[in-house]
Amino acid sequence: MTNNIFYPHKEIFKHPEFKNMCEYEDKVKEFEKDYEGTWAKLAKEKLTWFKDFDKTLDESNAPFYKWFVNGKINVSYQCIDRHLETKKNQAAIIWEGDNGEKKVYTYLDLYKETNKFANLLKSFGVTKGDRVVLYMPMIPEATFAMLACARIGAIHSVVFGGFSAEALKDRILDAKAKIVITADGAFRKGKPYMLKPVVDKALEGVECVEKVIVVERNNEDIKWNERDVSYNELIQSQSSKCEAEIMDSEDPLFLLYTSGSTGKPKGVQHSTAGYILWAQLTMEWVFDLKPNDTYWCTADIGWITGHTYIVYGPLAAGGTTLMFEGVLTYPDSGRAWKMIEEHRVNQFYTAPTAIRLLHKMGANEPKKYDLSSLRILGTVGEPIDPPAWKWYYEEVGQNRCSIVDTWWQTETGGHMITPLPSATPIKPGCATFPLPGIFAEIIDENGNKMESDEKGLLCITKPWPSMIRTIWGDSERFVNSYFGTAKKDGKPVYFSGDGAIYDEDGYIWITGRVDDVINVSGHRMGTAEIEASIQKHPDVAEVAVVGKPDEITGEAIFAYIVLKNSENLGEEVELIKALNNIVKRDIGNIAKISDVVFVPGLPKTRSGKVMRRILRAIAKGEEIKQDTSTLEDPSVVEAIINAVK
Ligand code: PRX
Description:
Blueprint: H1 21-33, H2 35-46, E1 55-58, E2 66-69, E3 72-73, H3 75-79, H4 84-87, E4 91-96, E5 102-106, H5 107-123, E6 131-135, H6 140-152, E7 155-158, H7 165-175, E8 179-183, E9 185-188, E10 191-194, H8 196-202, E11 211-215, E12 228-230, H9 231-235, E13 247-248, E14 252-258, E15 266-271, H10 273-286, E16 294-297, H11 304-316, E17 320-324, H12 335-343, E18 347-350, H13 352-361, E19 376-380, H14 386-396, E20 402-406, E21 440-443, E22 456-460, E23 470-471, H15 475-482, E24 483-488, E25 491-502, E26 508-513, E27 517-520, E28 523-526, H16 527-534, E29 540-550, E30 554-563, H17 572-586, E31 593-598, H18 612-620, H19 635-644
Parallel strand pairs: 4-17, 6-7, 6-8, 7-14, 8-11, 11-12, 16-17, 16-18, 18-19, 19-20, 30-31
Antiparallel strand pairs: 1-2, 3-13, 4-5, 9-10, 14-15, 15-23, 21-22, 22-25, 24-25, 25-26, 27-28, 29-30
Helix pairs in contact: 1-2, 5-6, 7-8, 10-11, 13-14
The protein binds adenosine-5'-monophosphate-propyl ester.
Adenosine-5'-monophosphate-propyl ester binds next to helix 11, strand 20, strand 25 and strand 26.
């Protein structure tokens, strides 16, 4: 924790609502005084309703909250139609491909393309409530597809293109998807990589999917199966008019699968009205998005950051969103800065892993470009370490831009704890304070608020509009995963899974997950998922996976493995390769094991629970301070330490 404070540059920011901390505090107080009334006012002011809501918040079945009850609305209408009068010719999406190819879609173009896609989906019988899985590269058609689903009330589930066929299959089956939308392939670092063959493999034996819509980019030949159809052929004849479906505030907008500490990934279900309200508001509050701004978020649409801050937030707020298919360091480490210069980007939003990599590969690169258009720099997904923060602030932001370190999650739908660029005095590496309307508290297991400098559990004590509604098909798991016994005003509090600390000024510092979830390059993975995969190898008796700090990726996967027969140790290299292949098959390339250590046993309590804290400490190279006498076999700790050496 550092106490260096960076004050906002008032000459750069003219935020209409939050010019200073007093205005921030006034807004917080407004919510404290009249929680529902303040949300209702914002919902009426910011959204275009087909029918007004009758009640702002229904808490009668907590934690299954309902927001803006009986309101009627459509998210694609919010993102497109209502802007047409004033922004028809404004760029809605600027796309840049891996090879530098550029395309611009105005709001009118976006309207037409979305409607055509919506009509195509309708022609296959897709209706309100049907699930549509997207396995897509970062191309504009992915955005059209998401908005087309929203237009007709279908629920999309975007699966990140780096997931394997097995992982894709699990998600398709869990959601019982009717349609899969994909592309023949994508381009990365100048080379094509195929997506369609992964879909083919995932769909073997899957009956619920009726059609696979394939966007053809002609990057290589693909196999056409009976249920496959070509987007390029069919889209031509679709009408560019499609009435937006009247949706209820609480109708599901999308599912997004994310990892938890146990079991298979969970289908986080988001709602319509509450989600889009917060997506738009946070764009305005945190990124100070102005009508002529060009905003660039480098996430992939397969993650929540891509959903809220490439597609829904910027478009609902009527901005111009830059979408990039390539890699920030290709063809060289100046690519990102060249794009900022060329597109005159005003807000740049990326992950600490990317910042660390860009720093390492080209510390002086930003200087070579004109980055004077930048006003706000954002980070998301993992804690940012002070050296990376400093480089971002000084070299990229040229000591002028505010850095917004945004803490949030797939489940929260949008930002929760973050500085406001024109108001909050910033401490490097600190997410600072909750946004107005968000009631965050660091508590102990009994629900008592922590004193400063004591680590506790980060919780949200009041429901908020863009919160997760349930886990698709498993409401019991929803309650058990997020709501413990702690209550506030008689209602269960939302438990984030992160630890946090208040400093003496009341700033909130996120300390990372307190459950068995690890964060590799900002990608969230359950250790249980990786363990279940490794366990499938016939030579593996037991396995425990933990996160190990990594200079670039934040955390790396560290696996402790007990073999059935330790004589196999001679074949280590082959075995490690085989284990990595299994994980790659089950999850995808993002789950690469960085360290494998074969150990004689795992540290277990007498009741058989693996003491992960000890394993985490060993992976970090820390001295073991915990009492090991309660272990079933304390000598195992020494043996593990020796194996790691
Ligand atoms: O541990 C926190 C970390 O990322 C987790 C959420 O991951 P996911 O649902 O994949 O969403 C990532 C994008 C919002 C959190 O539980 N995290 C996210 N933002 C930050 C962070 N940790 C520290 N600082 C952040 N700004």
